[in-house]
Amino acid sequence: MNPAVMLILLVGALAVFFWSALRRWQLLRVGKFTNRFDRIPERISAVLRYAFVQEKMAYYQPAGWAHKLIFFGFLILLLRTLVLWGRGFDPSWNLFVLGPTQPLGKVYEFAKDVFAILVLIGTSVFFYYRLIKPQKRMTLSGEALLILGIIASMMIADIVYDGATLALASKQPGSCIAGTPASFGTQCRAIAKLLAPFAASADGAHAAVASGHPGPSWFPSPAGSLMSLLLHRLPPGALIGFAHAGFWAHSALVLLFLNILPYSKHFHIITAIPNVFFKDLEPRGRLEPMGTAEQLVDKLTAASELPDPTKAPVGLAKVEHLTWKAIVDFYTCTECGRCSDNCPAHKTGKILSPKHLTLALRDHLYEHQPEFAAQEMQWGPRVDDAAAAGADVAANVERAADEAEGARRPLQYNPVDLVPEILHPDVLWGCTTCRACEEQCPVLISYVDKIVSMRRNLVMIKNEFPHELQKPFQAMEVNGNPWNLSRMDRAAWSDGLDIPTFADKPTAEVLYWVGCAASYDDRAKKIARATARLLKQAGVDFAILGQEECCTGDPARRAGNEMLFAMLAESNAAVLNSYKEKGGMKTVVTACPHCFNTLKNEYPDFGVKLEIVHHTDFLMGLIASRRLVPKRPVEGRIVFHDSCYLGRYNDVYESPREILRAIPGVELVEPDYWTKTRGLCCGAGGAQMWMEEQNQNRVNVKRTLQLVDTDAKTVASACPFCMTMLTDGLKSQNLEDRIQQMDVAELLDLSCSDDKPTSPSDENPPRVADAVPAE
Fold first, then answer.
1. Do residues 313 and 321 make contact, with C-beta atoms less than 8 angstroms apart?
2. What is the pLDDT of residue 397?
3. Could you tell me if 376 and 382 are in contact, meaning their C-beta atoms sit under 8 angstroms apart?
4. pLDDT digit string (tens) for 489-510?
5. β-strand partners of 483
6. In the predicted model, is pLDDT for residue 259 greater than 70?
7. Which residues contact 45 (CB under 8 A, 6 or more apart)?
8. Residue 321: what are its φ and ψ, rounded to 5°?
9. Contact of 636 with 774, CB cutoff 8 Å
10. What 3-state class would DSSP assign to 669?
11. What is the mean pLDDT of residues 464-482?
12. DSSP string for residues in 602-646
């Protein structure tokens, strides 16, 4: 080949790439340090699942299979690229073990040819989705077509190189007879270089040479043999030209492709595996705590004393407040749009698009690359670490603010507020925190943590939030519930059921955590009463907290009011731990997925270590142990709505369905697409329960219509917030008289009860005959 040209090509292209990579590395160091280097076996397992097996790609077919074909094709053809680069210096280079007639070489050549064809099939799928049937969710750009063209050209170039070489191999014996003057000519020398890999093999000849003709050979080179069949009538000079064109095209296109990556969405080819490896291994339902209420007071006081309080790293106000892992998220976004395509806010016309949120923050970073690169950003302990070590909080807040301002900069970067300079506030307040975006993202980018962090800064530093949240915030602070109803009435739902409180029975094994909705909302109270009747029927030793129970703080935390959440969490933690110390409260059962998630995944940060169980899991266990036996039939079609905080946050999908299947007469149906991990949010999460929607296209109505399309006569749920939203959805379509909305516990109670449930608070208790009209 040509060692000088190959050396210039490799050194020049790789030098440019490493310069580009260094710029991205400098930008990465803008982010503050977060430790993602622990629990290595779990991280390797995540890489195998999500980066190599690519589990999340299955949501969109055939695009998922096409992507896998290209991915594995690249992995296999990486060795081929190294071989070709080596042949630029030594024509006989076969990477020691990949010679055409060596056993491993034959296997590799076959795999390489097969995957080259599969990669071409994969690229054709994406060409189809971009040119013939464009997908609205995707970013349709010339860059993507260029990349697809490069990938396809690389595969074709490799096949052409193999085909022309095999065709030359069949012609060499007649055109370059050893010892003749022609054998010393330029053409024969060129042919000898191209065939040097075969000559270096053990038997000195490729199978195609031995056969004397370039006919198809399914092993070891199916694609190359077919190409040789197409080219074999060409003269040797033309074949040499095709071989060199294929060789240099493949060798150069790989380097061109590599240099495009840092400046395109295809940077994920480099960053996706690290992004998966460094994923957050904490429970999905856990938001990063900001400290105790007392520590938060100190931080907020110190921030308020700064000339610009937003410079203090309280939540996320400026790009410098991001972690380095968040910046890797930005690098890794493939712009596929799966996140926005499943986002309930985006699906109903809200301004929020998870994809464009990520791209807006990424583009802001890229725009200020020179200023950031000129700063000597250092990773090290920040405010939280110093506070934990007992250092003076105010001093450290001021130090962190100075760093954020760029005290070490030779070039000036003027920090801007991400909200509203980069992101409109409605982008943040449209989020229901349902995690549909994170569930769909094939490279595990996180969104909810960034959105809530920006809400934290808006609420606690700027005091800017939707006015509808003012009353729930005050109500939770004063009366321990977002409806601002009296604490004295918290246990009124249980009138007539003779349920003890832990104050009266501190040794009870099970705490039934009722939650605010089931304690105060008239419709949700029926869920609490049904659950309590089932527990009593099964002989469960349980009690409630009554007036000692307080809102878990989930709405406050998701709305960004971390201070209020910390106050509520500390108050509840003290009550829970006090009864645990008295020998009771082995298990906590709750019918509210938001309480369930908060108690299970976030209260451990406040010292609560208890077994937390959702009521569907607990009731299913009672059915399995025959302590509850559904016997009265509930005839009809029932569709189950998955709560986001039960399903996507905590993987509870089957227990509610198993309960429904255990009830005689129930025909369980599912929506065609929007079910389980893909189930659309009801619209109440992320404190949306207390906010007005940003337009007239309501999330709860869209979700209700998806469920109604199944022709079900009852919509079942396992969350009091979902119940409210779906009931309102049915009313908006004038369907409340034809289709009922009931909790799983209510349906089970109807089937297990021998007597009609009655109580002073149940004006119209459900009846089996009314639960699902017979079809």
1. yes
2. 59
3. no
4. 999 999 999 999 999 999 999 9
5. none
6. yes
7. none
8. -80, -10
9. yes
10. strand
11. 97
12. IGGGGT---EEEEHHHHHHHHHHTTSS---S---EEEEEPPPTTT
| Cα dihedral value 236, 237, 241, 246, nearest 10 | 0
| pLDDT single digits (tens) 375-417 | 654 444 444 443 444 445 556 656 665 555 544 444 567 889 9
What's the rounded Cα separation, in Å, for the pair 484 and 504? 26
Measured CA to CA, the distance from residue 695 to residue 687 in angstroms comes to 17
* Mean pLDDT (the chain, rounded): 89
675, two tokens: 């079910």
- Residue 383 is predicted with a pLDDT of 43
Fill in the amino acid letter for 700.
Answer: N
CA distance 240 to 332: 41
How many C-beta neighbours within 10 Å does residue 185 have? 13
pLDDT of the residue at 478: 96
Q: Which residues contact 266 (CB under 8 A, 6 or more apart)?
A: 147, 260, 334
Residues, the chain: 775
Q: Is 507 helix (H, G, I), strand (E, B) or coil?
A: coil
Taking Cα atoms as reference points, which of 341, 335, 631, 319 lies closest to residue 454?
A: 319
The two three-digit tokens of residue 362, written as one number: 């990424």
| Bridge pairing between strands 542-543 and 510-513 | parallel
> How deeply is 281 buried, as exposed, middle or buried, from its count of CB atoms within 10 A (0-12, 13-18, 19+)?
exposed
Contact 588, 612 (CB under 8 A): yes
Across the beta sheet with 740-743, the strand order is: 666-669, 636-640, 714-717, 740-743
Q: 614 has which bridge partners?
A: 590
Structure tokens at 602: 């976030």
* C-alpha to C-alpha distances, 733 to 701, 705, 739, 766, 771, nearest whole angstrom: 8, 9, 11, 22, 20
Amino acid in position 221: S
Which of 721, 714, 719, 720 has its CA nearest to residue 747?
714
DSSP state of 697: S
Q: Which two tokens stand for residue 623?
A: 């059915």
Contact 236, 125 (CB under 8 A): no
* Ordered DSSP codes for 467-501: GGGHHHHHHHHHHSSTT---GGGTTGGGTTS-PPB
Rg, Å, the chain Cα set: 32
Query: Do residues 400 and 314 lie in contact, with contact meaning Cβ atoms separated by under 8 Å?
Result: no
Q: How many other β-carbons are positioned within 10 Å of the β-carbon of residue 235?
A: 11
Contact 422, 367 (CB under 8 A): no
Neighbours of 255 (CB within 10 A): 18
> For a pLDDT cut of 70, what percent of the chain falls above it?
88
CA separation for the pair 702, 235 (Å, rounded): 66
Q: Which residues are within 8 A (CB) of 281 and not within 5 positions of it... i.e. 6 or more apart? A: 38, 39, 42, 43, 46
CA neighbor of 418 nearest in space, from 352, 361, 355, 358: 361
**DSSP type of residue 714:** E
Could you give the maximum distance between any two Cα atoms of the chain, in Å? 112
Residue 775: Cβ within 10 Å count: 9
User: 587-590 and 740-743: which strand pairing?
Assistant: unpaired
User: Looking up tokens 């995707």, which residue turns up?
Assistant: 138
Q: Which amino acid is at 49?
A: R
Question: Omega of the bond prior to 220 within 30 degrees of 0, cis?
Answer: yes
Of the candidates 639, 681, 673, which has an alpha carbon nearest to the alpha carbon of residue 436?
681
The pLDDT tens digits of the residues spanning 54-72 come to 999 999 999 999 999 999 9
pLDDT tens-digit map of 262-280: 999 999 999 999 999 999 9
Report which residue type is found at 340: S
